[in-house]
Design goal:
- Two copies of one chain form a homodimer.
- Chain A is of the alpha/beta class and 600 residues long.
- Chain A folds into two domains: 252 residues, Alpha/Beta hydrolase fold, catalytic domain (Rossmann fold); 196 residues, 3-Layer(aba) Sandwich (Rossmann fold), CATH 3.40.50.150.
- Helices cover 36% and strands 17% of the residues of chain A.
- In chain A, the strands form five sheets. Chain A has an eight-stranded mixed β-sheet with strand order 1-4-8-5-11-12-13-14, with helices on both faces.
- In chain A, helix 1 packs across helix 2 and helix 4 crosses helix 6.
- The longest helix of chain A has 19 residues.
- Chain A starts with 17 loop residues before the first strand and ends with a strand.
- Chains A and B meet through helix 3, helix 4, helix 5, helix 6 and helix 7 of A and helix 3, helix 4, helix 5, helix 6 and helix 7 of B.
């Protein structure tokens, strides 16, 4: 929510801000609370060129206090780039050589768009306390009028972090046919109670400033003290505890020690670097922001609550057509990962195309402005990927010619079924099955780079530790035909619980596993006295991820205990066929690996 | 830091507050910053009876804003018990039938003790801005004068939560021979930068209240608005995010929805239950607390920093004699567990007797006042345990007659050595070795109830997941003769890293493990095709904690790879002796379990 200073040579270069006075009817701009604004003007910036079709647009939704200046410089001498310049520019993740990028100052703001400090045409004075309540929806409706005025026919993508994510979601909900992709970063379906608590305190601090005067202070002194203190408080919530410790620890220790008993440190002013830093943040903010705008935009943020508004999050998203990328930040405690994941879960359970990322950062909530390396990679791949197309039958379909398991999987999973691939890697299985059999799939994967490959392959993927059954509770009952656990079931800690969980999510589970009953295992233990190693069990005993090994027979017994129906059980040996093993009656000793399909 | 309302029938009953005007010399009460107070008066309460020796005292140190009324009621009709009444009283964890309990209002406070609102005898007016800077050390020195005046000869225990923990630590450091036990709850060696940030904002809010007048407001209006807002902010930091969500979520949803567009909800007053709750907390606080006291006590808290003051935490604690109990709270983010653990680590590395607990709670920092069930159990055991005495030779020494491993361990570990028992359970091994061979030990254990048993046995124990090498980094190099891993090495995820880690901490590692090369394992796999089960491997393959099994020979190979010296390697079979196995040359096939001693 703060503006960060960047200086980039590879910038989109000198840019200009423009104002659009939106043409309105007699009623003015109708707000969601029933009131209306007589006039609506939005300040905005654009970079790149709108194509003839008017459909190469990336629309940027700004966070609470940012302006329209999202990239580039106003003059070549200007040292301060736009607030997301690291993400937007020629050759950058949001590539201005390809995309037409638009960002506007939000409705209610004080940086060029209509807000409480704007002149009310009916009175000739600033609105002040007369400015009506606005919502995130109002902000988005206003932006849509701007897009229409700019002759934009579709949004290739809408992107927003923090409160910008609130707007991005509303864009996809209000204009489902207009928005093709939606990137939501460090956001959630509503504020947590803790975050709301801080908002409430900040609000009280401002409105109780003696200069506030119920919002009508434009002719006198402004409520600078209250606004600065509210900003200091909010600023702490944008940082992580670990980030603050790294930044201030040493200085704090030295200063506290030397100053604690010194005359110039008092209970009213400790003389700490952290104190000066926070006071600087407060003062800087007062110089660029209006208290009424802050309160009105904060109010729109605080009352945003998709679940309450639509009855459920799934209902909120039920009509969206956009593909989503949802990113949360590990140390963000203003929009914590578990709140952000609710967006992902709702979209999944509403049957939408969603990829979600868990981004590791020490920057806290500010990470959406600062953690641009990995965030940029994901955004770039997401923007370059094609919308999932009908399979092209003239295309050569790749098969897994050197891998019996995957050949088997392909043969076993029927056309047009849906699969959840737990541990999907780069998404090869889903991609292959889509192309050969129109199988639709969602991948679950832990590894960031594998997820980037999935995004490139257009395979929707959720970043999760799929080995923990507790991570899978967000998937709805019976939401897939098949759940695939390829070669990783022996890595699971609670196998019974996980098996139950995936059979809750999918009608059938496809499990492939190395057989610990193979004769090479027996001989290694009996004759060499050592834990076995083989091509299927390639690790040392002390570093293997295979923590719960088991045999062909063990698996059959488990299925009996759990009352599961074994639909298929194939003993795989790379030299002998399954039929030969069966004929010889040595499936347990002979199977190197096993492929099983089970159902309840 | 808040006062909580309890109503207990089993209370210590009607109690009275008393004031002690401390007799001072000409210099008055000298403060650590060099200034002095002309007069020192402390308000205090006592419960129970001081014994003839004056050594049955439990001294309670209060958190930031609490008063001396820690237990009981002022009148039988009084509905509000003291703030830690759940912990203190007849038959309660701090048993007033046995202990003489004392709590005083702290120096700088406004609830009866000398503070900024007290009358300065030199001027006849309240100190106000003239009140000198105080420290946690000053608070403790003042309390010691009270203890002397009460004829107290020793403190059986000093106990404090939050800022009370700061005082408790200072007590043990300043008066090492006077303090026998020290309980520190939800505290840390200093505030984190994040916590300090909130303190700074709160302070600015108060001192910028127009009524504050540099601290001299006693003759006019008080800075009620600033103090209330600072309290609202601080109040949020005492709660956990999850606790706030549980408390306010449903109400917030309903109200926000119905009121967001309603006339009585505005950006200045949303009309939410959370808003009323926080405002109530602010107003209630203003009615009982003085702004100057708040600032002065907060200042003492903010500048408390044992590491800076003493050069290192180990140095801070080097002379203490007290046994410590240190408790952290899982959802406390004001004094987060990782900060609290620094106290434990420093005491351990300074060679002190310390037991530490990780208490699970949803109450956040307030858990030290509310999570009295498990906290009380630990406190009760800690207070009832005897100080570790010289072994009594007339006592029957228990041995492990039915357990070859433990008999072996007892025979293998020499007299007067020191051990770290990783996975110590109820502390039986350490207790036994102490009694039979004067072996000193520290246990590490995950299970809360086992830890209670350790406390009862006087076995110092640290609550940690000892299976993770990353949890052991806080132990200093070579701090023990032996690290014992009894029957749990096969449960470790990163065995090589863990082995290296324990051989960094101890000169030798004693490891006992089930032998996966035993002939019953081979036959189960080869002839039954099943994962083995036996008395040493009693689990099913899918629920066993034994995630990295290995054989007698595997272990030898690992030691070779790691260049470790195998000092002992005993193949244990409950029917055949180790000698017989060796003579038959079947140690790998014959050993049910193995006991090894290895060193670098």
């Amino acid at each position: 929510m703060r503006m960060i200073e960047f200086l980039h040579k590879d910038s989109v270069g000198p840019v200009v801000s423009r104002d659009m006075l939106i043409p309105l009817g007699e009623d003015g701009f109708r707000l969601e609370n029933g009131e209306s604004l007589p006039e609506l003007s939005l300040r905005y910036e654009t970079y790149g060129t709108l194509n003839a079709k008017g459909d190469n647009v990336v629309w940027v939704c700004s966070p609470l206090t940012a302006d329209a200046h999202v990239a580039g410089f106003y003059t070549p001498e200007d040292k301060k780039a736009g607030w997301w310049d690291a993400l937007i520019g020629p050759g950058k993740p949001v590539d201005t050589d390809r995309f037409f990028v638009v960002c506007s100052n939000i409705l209610g703001g004080c940086q060029g768009s209509t807000g409480p400090s704007s002149k009310d045409p009916r009175t000739g004075k600033p609105y002040g306390s007369a400015f009506p309540n606005i919502t995130i929806g109002d902000m988005v409706s206003a932006q849509k009028l701007l897009a229409d005025a700019l002759n934009i026919k579709r949004l290739y993508c809408v992107i927003g972090g923090s409160m910008g994510g609130f707007q991005a979601m509303k864009w996809s909900i209000y204009y489902p046919d207009y928005v093709e992709r939606c990137i939501v970063i460090a956001s959630s379906p509503r504020f947590s109670s803790q975050a709301l608590g801080f908002e409430i305190v900040g609000r009280d601090i401002i409105i109780q400033d003696p200069n506030f005067n119920g919002g009508d202070y434009y002719e006198g002194a402004i409520p600078a003290v209250g606004l600065a203190n509210a900003r200091k408080l909010a600023h702490i919530t944008y940082l992580s505890a670990v980030g603050m410790e790294q930044k201030f620890k040493r200085a704090a220790v030295e200063e506290a020690h030397t100053k604690a008993t010194a005359a110039f440190s008092t209970p009213f002013d400790m003389g700490l670097p952290l104190e000066s830093y926070l006071r600087y943040q407060g003062t800087k903010f007062v110089s660029r922001f209006d208290a009424n705008s802050y309160l009105h935009i904060a109010y729109a943020t605080d009352t945003f609550d998709l679940e309450t508004e639509y009855g459920s999050l799934e209902t909120a998203f039920q009509n969206v057509h956009a593909e989503f990328l949802n990113v949360n930040l590990s140390t963000d405690w203003l929009f914590p990962p578990h709140e952000s994941r609710k967006i992902t879960n709702a979209l999944l359970n509403a049957g939408k195309v969603i990829t979600s990322l868990e981004l590791d950062t020490a920057f806290g909530h500010d990470g959406f402005l600062l953690e641009v390396g990995n965030l940029g990679k994901a955004v770039a791949r997401f923007l370059n990927s094609k919308v999932q197309a009908e399979p092209d039958n003239t295309q050569v379909v790749p098969i897994f010619q050197n891998n019996k398991d995957l050949e088997l999987l392909e043969s076993l999973i029927p056309e047009k079924s849906s699969i959840l691939d737990l541990g999907c890697g780069g998404g090869l299985l889903i991609d292959t099955l889509w192309k050969s059999k129109k199988v639709t799939g969602v991948g679950v994967e832990k590894n960031f780079n594998s997820i980037l490959d999935c995004i490139e392959r257009d395979v929707p993927v959720i970043q999760k530790n799929y080995l923990e059954e507790s991570e899978l509770t967000s998937f709805a009952n019976n939401s897939f035909d098949y759940a695939v656990f390829n070669r990783t079931f022996q890595e699971v800690k609670n196998q019974v619980q996980l098996l139950r969980e995936i059979l809750r999510i999918a009608k059938r589970a496809v499990i492939t596993f190395p057989n610990f009953g193979h004769w090479t295992v027996c001989t290694a233990l009996c004759f060499q006295g050592r834990m076995p190693k083989s091509k299927d069990l390639p690790y040392e005993w002390y570093n293997t991820p295979n923590i719960h090994l088991f045999t062909y027979s063990d698996f059959i017994h488990l299925c009996k205990e759990e009352n599961l129906h074994i639909e298929k059980l194939v003993a795989v040996n790379d030299k002998l066929s399954s039929k030969v093993l069966t004929a010889l009656g040595i499936k347990n000793l002979g199977a190197e690996r096993v492929v099983a399909i089970v159902s309840r």
